C-alpha cells in the first residue's frame, strides 16, 4: 500500500479545497470561471494532484456563483488551501493534524478541519496554530502558473508514471533523446517528430497526435486528445491541456484545455484559458525592448503591478479569442469572453466581454457572446449547459465596471 492510499485510510474524512480570498483575486481572470484548485499547473490540475496523492476524491469551497458547478461534499472535511501545490511531504504534515489545530504559513491558512455545517473557516481563530517550518509552494499570482510549470511537470510525471510502462513508438522517422524520460499513453500517434527529453520529462497523453516535423523539448506535457500540428516548435516548461490544437512556436506556457493556436506565431511565458482561439500569426511579446521588469494588470488593486519578471507574455481568459495577425504587447491581460482583432497593439488590459482592438473597444453583448460560445462548444460535441451559462452571465454583470465605454456590439 503506497503512502497516498495509507493517507486515505488515516483521514476518514473528505478533502475540501478552499479558495483563499486573499489569493483568489490575484489569480483573475482565470478564477472568474473556476476555483483556485481547478487551475492546471504541470500535467494535472491542483485538485487532481491531491486526488492522485491521497487516493480520494476532493470537493471545493469557492464563490457562491461557482458552487453549483463545483459543489462541496457533505460531511466533515479536511479543508486545504486550494493554492497549495502538494508533494509527498505534504501528506506527512497533514497526517498528524487534529480537529482543534490549524496549519499556517505566516498569515496564510494552509489546512484545518471543518465541520459539516460550517460554511466558512472563521472558527480557525479558536484553534491551536501550527506554523509550517518550510515554505509551501503556493500559487499566488497568475504568472506563477508558467513560472512553476516545469517543476510541476516533473513532479506530476513521476506521480502519473510510477510503476507503469510507456507505450512504444513504432514510427521509424521519429527520434527520441533520453527515451527513459518519455512516457506515452495508449492511443497516441506520433509521426516524424523529434522528442528531446534531455532537459526534462515529456508526457504524451491518450489519443493525442504529434504531426510530421514537430520539435519538442522537455519538460513538456501534451494532455488527452490534443494535437501538435505539422512543424510545431515546442520549447520546455510547456503544458498543452486536453482537446487542444497547437501549432507555431510555444515556450514556457500553459494552455488549460479546449483551446486552439493552430497556426504560426509565437506564444511565450503565457497562460491561455479554456475555449480560446488564437488567429493565424498571432504573436505575443514576452520581453520588453529595454529588458526591464514586466508590469501586469492586478485585479486586486485595479492597476498594473510589477511582476519582478523579465519574461512575461499573455494572460488570456476563458472564451476569449483574437483575429489573425494579432500582436499582444509584453504583459497583456485579457478577461473572459473578449474578442480582440485589428492592426497594431491593443491595450495591455482588456476587460471581460470586450470587442475590438487598438482602435477602441465596445461591449460584446451577452446574448451574442453566448451564441458564439455555444457554437464553439458544440464543435467539440459538447453542450454549454445551464450552469456554465449562469456562471458566464454572472461574470458579465460583475465585470461591467471595467467596461467604461458606451457603445455595444
Automatic annotation (TrEMBL):
Molecular-function GO term, any one: nucleotidyltransferase activity
Source domain of life: Bacteria
SUPFAM superfamilies: Trimeric LpxA-like enzymes
Keywords: Acyltransferase, Transferase
Keyword Transferase: yes
Listed Pfam families: NTP_transf_4
InterPro entries associated with the record: Bifunctiontional_GlmU_bac-type, GlmU-like, Trimer_LpxA-like_sf
Protein's name in the database: UDP-N-acetylglucosamine diphosphorylase/glucosamine-1-phosphate N-acetyltransferase
Organism of this sequence: Algoriphagus chordae
